[in-house]
């Protein structure tokens, strides 16, 4: 697992561009957190990627016009704890309370 | 007080826009209502995809930003293929889409789509305009990013109520980007490092891509190549960058590249790349690409570096600066004598095409056609076999003279793109080569050609198949020609005549004589010299194939020259 820290200006769609660089490669995201940081915003991602994908992702992110910095680091305990509960992709589970959420969505 | 639509158009004018392509509809109507007197010429195509490809044609031929306009919903979704095409081929493009009223966004209103969301991964930059006040700043920033560094597509989505609203307008905005602390540029000492690698190299080569042309550094590149005097070849988008008669030039490289170029790319020990992104059609099997090479990559887009192979040296920056800096150092450098390597790489036994390929009637036809073109003509090729034949036979030193959808491979590109090229270069001979499949994908643009009386010389290489797919079916799917038979094609000559466009048919039998007989020669001359739009349908053998061919997954040295 590798941790990625991407600093960006929080303009329309920039966070989505950061995430589509991951999703277009079919890579799961066990942990992701984005918030205001320093003078802009920062997204922290935990990804299970190989060395080639690390290079590709970093360059793709850096090519986004409102990304200001990209760093690769060691996962924090908080990231690893969150990722431990991630069992891979799964469909949304039905709500136990009589499927109210699902019914609301269908309405 | 000005309406948002008037402000929008004034801002476009401030960006130098004089020509736009589009198709009106509900949400974008206020912009169309303000067009008259704006100083901007609008060209109505017959489909939004025609508009975006025409805008691309304008941009590719001139280097200016192409502009396409569409309405919300289906109008916007019809632009998507062109936006993807511009992303792949680094074309400066601004697409303007009308959106439903701001109060209705997110309600699944009539003709509402999330064009911002659906184009996020295809655009370099995009904005949904959130107020009339934002219009000047959004346009300034959008055009900046479309042009800047590696050019690309931009989408500006504007709700219809902001086009109708009014405000005081103090003038167009200017955009100044905030510098990024870690923006990298080539260090001054890179030239010494490259020279050091050259001094140790025994078999150096140069690969030229689109980036060399986009940088505008073609004269400097040619001087550099003359000084280096090493075997050089080009990607399909690099065609025209090198003077074809240069003794070290080996032609196009890649899946349908020349034998000499592919062999040199496979055998070299030092590969200098100038503005190419190493698409899989160029590398063949990436694990066996240039197996003994050290790579030096001159590139403006950091996302392209080390993508396929780790480089020995990455020279990140605008080629307009790095090439002259490198050449300055090369002039005083002592370099090895590579004449033995040059003799091997450029030798007679690696002739540009196999003789059996040269005997192909379509190759002969294209040779006859291209040899009659005035200097600085523009050739557009659609996508498929004819595209590769045209790329193989194109022999011009005009950097913007060969235009095709290379990265995305979008069939239907060439005809509307030719509209954009011809409007941008009214005195230039524009030849549009299509296949019978691709021509039918945007055949409606014959109406645009007719309305504007554009003297485009349209060629259909008609083999009554989706020829490239059929070729793959023949070679790799045991001749199972599943759904590629187009033998029930309409009569293209009659269709053109219905659009009041002159059209003729030429049989491949006319190519039996080489050079062609007087009658065929006269017909070709007349075709090219006509002041009107003309269509020529060339009947091609149904099972003609493009060779050489590097099968998918093979190394560049494993070219096919015939069916096994």
Question: What is the name of the CATH superfamily of chain A?
Answer: ACT domain
Q: Which descriptor suits the 3D outline of chain B?
A: globular
Strands of chain B, total number:
20
**What is the average per-residue confidence, as pLDDT of chain B, rounded to a whole number?**
95
CATH third-tier fold name of chain A: Alpha-Beta Plaits
The end-to-end distance of chain A, rounded to whole angstroms, is: 40 Å
Anisotropy-based shape of chain A:
globular
Question: Helical percent range of chain A?
Answer: 25-40%
CATH architecture of chain A: 2-Layer Sandwich
Catalogue the unreliable spans of chain B: none
Proportion in β-strands of chain A: 25-35%
Helix content of chain B: 25-40%
Order of helices and strands of chain A: EHEEHEHH
Strand proportion of chain B = 15-25%
CA-to-CA gap between the ends of chain B? 73 Å
The poorly predicted ranges of chain A are none
CATH class of the largest domain in chain B: Alpha Beta
Tally of strands of chain A: 4
Count of spatially separate domains of chain A: 1
What report would you give on this structure?
The complex is a heterodimer of chains A (107) and B (564). Chain A has 107 residues and is an alpha+beta fold. Chain A is built from four helices and four strands; from the N terminus they run βαββαβαα. Chain A has one domain: 2-Layer Sandwich (Alpha-Beta Plaits), CATH 3.30.70.260. In chain A, a hairpin with a 2-residue loop joins strand 2 (31-37) and strand 3 (40-47). The longest helix of chain A has 12 residues, at 51-62. The mean pLDDT of chain A is 85. In chain B, strands 3-2-4-5-7-6 form a six-stranded parallel beta sheet, sandwiched between helices. Chain B folds into three domains: 2-166, Rossmann fold, CATH 3.40.50; 190-350, TPP-binding domain (Rossmann fold, 3-Layer(aba) Sandwich); 355-539, Thiamin diphosphate (ThDP)-binding fold, Pyr/PP domains (Rossmann fold). Chain B is an alpha/beta fold and 564 residues long. The chains are: A alpha+beta (107), B alpha/beta (564). The interface between A and B is medium-sized, with 16 and 22 residues.
């Amino acid at each position: 697992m590798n941790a990625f820290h991407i600093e960006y200006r929080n303009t329309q769609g920039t966070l989505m561009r950061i995430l589509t660089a991951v999703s277009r490669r079919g890579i799961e995201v066990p942990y992701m957190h984005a918030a205001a940081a320093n003078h802009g915003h920062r997204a922290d991602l935990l990804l299970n990627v190989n060395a080639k994908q690390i290079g590709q992702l970093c360059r793709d992110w850096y090519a986004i016009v409102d990304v200001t910095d990209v760093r690769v680091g060691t996962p924090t305990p908080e990231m690893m704890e969150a990722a431990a509960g991630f069992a891979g992709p799964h469909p949304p589970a039905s709500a136990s309370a009589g499927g109210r959420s699902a019914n609301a969505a269908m309405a | 007080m000005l309406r948002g639509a008037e402000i929008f158009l004034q801002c476009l004018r401030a960006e130098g826009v004089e020509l736009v392509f589009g198709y009106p509809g509900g949400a974008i109507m206020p912009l169309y209502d303000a067009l008259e007197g704006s100083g901007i010429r609008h060209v109505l195509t017959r489909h939004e995809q025609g508009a975006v490809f025409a805008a691309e044609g304008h941009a590719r031929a001139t280097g200016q930003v192409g502009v396409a306009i569409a309405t919300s919903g289906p109008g916007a979704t019809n632009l998507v293929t062109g936006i993807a095409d511009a992303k792949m081929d680094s074309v400066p493009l601004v697409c303007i889409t009308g959106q439903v009223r701001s109060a209705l966004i997110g309600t699944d209103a009539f003709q509402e789509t999330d064009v911002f969301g659906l184009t996020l991964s295809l655009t370099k930059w995009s904005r949904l305009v959130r107020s009339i006040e934002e219009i000047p700043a959004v346009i300034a920033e959008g055009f900046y990013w479309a042009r800047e560094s590696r050019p690309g597509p931009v989408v500006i989505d504007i709700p219809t109520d902001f086009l109708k609203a009014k405000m005081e307008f103090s003038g167009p905005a200017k955009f100044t980007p905030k510098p990024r602390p870690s923006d990298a540029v080539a260090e001054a000492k890179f030239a010494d490092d490259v020279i050091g690698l050259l001094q140790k190299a025994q078999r150096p080569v140069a690969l030229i891509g689109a980036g060399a042309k986009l940088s505008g550094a073609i004269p400097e590149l040619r001087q550099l190549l003359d000084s280096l005097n090493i075997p050089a070849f080009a990607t399909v988008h690099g065609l025209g960058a090198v003077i074809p008669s240069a003794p070290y030039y080996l032609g196009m490289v890649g899946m349908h590249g020349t034998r000499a170029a592919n062999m040199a790319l496979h055998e070299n020990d030092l590969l200098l790349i100038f503005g190419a992104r190493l698409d899989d059609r160029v590398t063949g099997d990436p694990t066996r690409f240039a197996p003994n090479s050290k790579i030096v990559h001159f590139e403006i887009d950091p996302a392209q570096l080390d993508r396929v192979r780790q480089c020995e040296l990455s020279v990140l920056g605008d080629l307009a600066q790095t090439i002259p800096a490198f050449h300055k150092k090369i002039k005083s450098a002592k370099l090895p004598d590579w004449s033995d390597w040059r003799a091997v790489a450029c030798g007679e036994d690696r002739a540009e095409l196999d003789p059996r390929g040269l005997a192909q009637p379509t190759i002969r036809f294209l040779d006859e056609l291209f040899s009659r073109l005035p200097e600085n003509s523009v050739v557009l090729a659609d996508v498929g076999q004819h595209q590769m034949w045209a790329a193989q036979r194109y022999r011009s030193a005009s950097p913007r003279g060969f235009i095709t959808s290379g990265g995305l491979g979008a069939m239907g590109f060439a005809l509307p793109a030719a509209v954009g090229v011809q409007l941008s270069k009214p005195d230039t001979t524009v030849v549009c080569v299509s296949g019978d499949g691709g021509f039918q994908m945007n055949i409606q643009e014959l109406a645009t050609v007719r309305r504007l009386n554009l003297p485009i010389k349209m060629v259909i290489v008609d083999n009554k198949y989706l020829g490239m797919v059929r070729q793959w079916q023949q070679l790799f799917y045991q001749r199972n020609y599943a759904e590629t038979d187009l033998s029930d094609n309409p009569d293209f000559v009659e269709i053109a005549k219905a659009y009041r466009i002159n059209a003729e048919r030429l049989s491949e039998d006319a190519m039996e004589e080489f050079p062609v007989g007087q009658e065929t020669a006269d017909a070709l001359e007349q075709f090219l010299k006509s002041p009107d739009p003309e269509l020529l349908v060339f009947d091609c053998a149904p099972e003609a194939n493009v060779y050489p061919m590097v099968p998918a997954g093979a190394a560049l040295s494993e070219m096919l020259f015939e069916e096994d």
